[in-house]
């Protein structure tokens, strides 16, 4: 193979890091520019502290648009890659339909949020104030919903895979960061129309905080390091809840079926088409250990 398995994660794991770096760097560039030029009062500025949108609507608009495009696309691709890795078994797979549904909803939310971010940078607050605020709302709601769906998904996955410390860390980190940012977003929505300076400060804090939320996905994607397709099932990394679920599955003919005779995903049900995952028998076929075999 062109790359060793331990290096397979390298390319896609850096997608959130790249997006976070561009976002963080651009924010600093915009903030430093505003401070270095003597804190100018922009035409669109309401208080004494400039909003990100005020600086982004100035001569730095091209930089702001490029930054938002890269960050929005990176966020969406990160969620898509994460979903693909779980589906292929290189990250802890979704064991139930509800987890797959919330994972898909998180991807959709990231697409909506990313689109809102790109559009708000194009329709700046100076020339299209109403559209700018609409797309700002779309961005906040999209990212917020994506974060909520992701956290719920991780919570259920964490219950399926008992004893997986890294998975628990990822779930807790996302929960803390997302909760703080969502609370700040609500406060920002209120102060935007009441206290301009406070709203501006909160907007900068939320923007910089979003960087850390993006970086949590680098931690997640690195867990696929050295993992082949289906490795998390092949290596017996099922938790207590997952083993119990897998133990209720029966094999009917060629496809895999669960309770009620409904065909299921081979990774989700713990089977590889013909027989369960686990240790190998004399024929080289993956089977569950005797203690967990149905």
From TrEMBL:
<keyword id="KW-0812">Transmembrane</keyword>
<feature type="transmembrane region" description="Helical">
    <location>
        <begin position="63"/>
        <end position="81"/>
    </location>
</feature>
<dbReference type="GO" id="GO:0005886">
    <property type="term" value="C:plasma membrane"/>
</dbReference>
<protein>
    <recommendedName>
        <fullName>CWH43-like N-terminal domain-containing protein</fullName>
    </recommendedName>
</protein>
<feature type="transmembrane region" description="Helical">
    <location>
        <begin position="198"/>
        <end position="219"/>
    </location>
</feature>
<dbReference type="Pfam" id="PF10277">
    <property type="entry name" value="Frag1"/>
</dbReference>
<feature type="transmembrane region" description="Helical">
    <location>
        <begin position="101"/>
        <end position="122"/>
    </location>
</feature>
<dbReference type="InterPro" id="IPR019402">
    <property type="entry name" value="CWH43_N"/>
</dbReference>
<feature type="transmembrane region" description="Helical">
    <location>
        <begin position="134"/>
        <end position="157"/>
    </location>
</feature>
<keyword id="KW-0472">Membrane</keyword>
<dbReference type="GO" id="GO:0012505">
    <property type="term" value="C:endomembrane system"/>
</dbReference>
<feature type="domain" description="CWH43-like N-terminal">
    <location>
        <begin position="12"/>
        <end position="222"/>
    </location>
</feature>
<feature type="transmembrane region" description="Helical">
    <location>
        <begin position="169"/>
        <end position="192"/>
    </location>
</feature>
<keyword id="KW-1133">Transmembrane helix</keyword>
<dbReference type="InterPro" id="IPR050911">
    <property type="entry name" value="DRAM/TMEM150_Autophagy_Mod"/>
</dbReference>
<feature type="transmembrane region" description="Helical">
    <location>
        <begin position="12"/>
        <end position="36"/>
    </location>
</feature>
């Amino acid at each position: 193979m062109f790359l060793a398995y331990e290096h397979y994660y390298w390319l896609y794991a850096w997608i959130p890091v790249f997006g976070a770096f561009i976002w963080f760097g651009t924010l600093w560039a915009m903030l430093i520019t505003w401070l270095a030029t003597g804190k100018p009062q922009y035409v669109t500025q309401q208080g004494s502290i400039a909003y990100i949108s005020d600086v982004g609507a100035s001569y730095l608009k091209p930089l702001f648009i490029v930054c938002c495009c890269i960050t929005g696309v990176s966020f969406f691709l990160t969620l898509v890659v994460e979903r693909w890795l779980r589906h292929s078994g290189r990250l802890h797979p979704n064991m139930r339909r509800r987890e797959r549904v919330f994972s898909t909803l998180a991807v959709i939310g990231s697409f909506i949020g990313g689109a809102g971010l790109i559009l708000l940078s194009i329709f700046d607050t100076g020339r299209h104030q109403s559209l700018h605020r609409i797309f700002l709302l779309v961005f906040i709601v999209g990212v917020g919903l994506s974060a909520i769906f992701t956290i719920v998904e991780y919570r259920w996955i964490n219950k399926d895979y008992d004893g997986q410390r890294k998975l628990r860390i990822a779930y807790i980190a996302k929960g803390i960061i997302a909760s703080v940012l969502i609370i700040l977003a609500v406060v920002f929505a209120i102060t935007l129309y009441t206290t301009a300076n406070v709203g501006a400060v909160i907007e900068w804090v939320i923007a910089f905080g979003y960087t850390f939320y993006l970086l949590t996905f680098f931690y997640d994607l690195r867990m696929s390091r050295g993992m082949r397709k289906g490795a998390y099932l092949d290596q017996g990394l099922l938790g207590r809840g997952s083993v119990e679920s897998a133990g209720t599955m029966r094999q009917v003919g060629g496809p895999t079926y669960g309770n009620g005779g409904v065909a299921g995903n081979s990774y989700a049900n713990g089977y590889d088409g013909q027989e369960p995952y686990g240790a190998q028998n004399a024929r080289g076929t993956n089977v569950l250990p005797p203690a967990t075999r149905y």
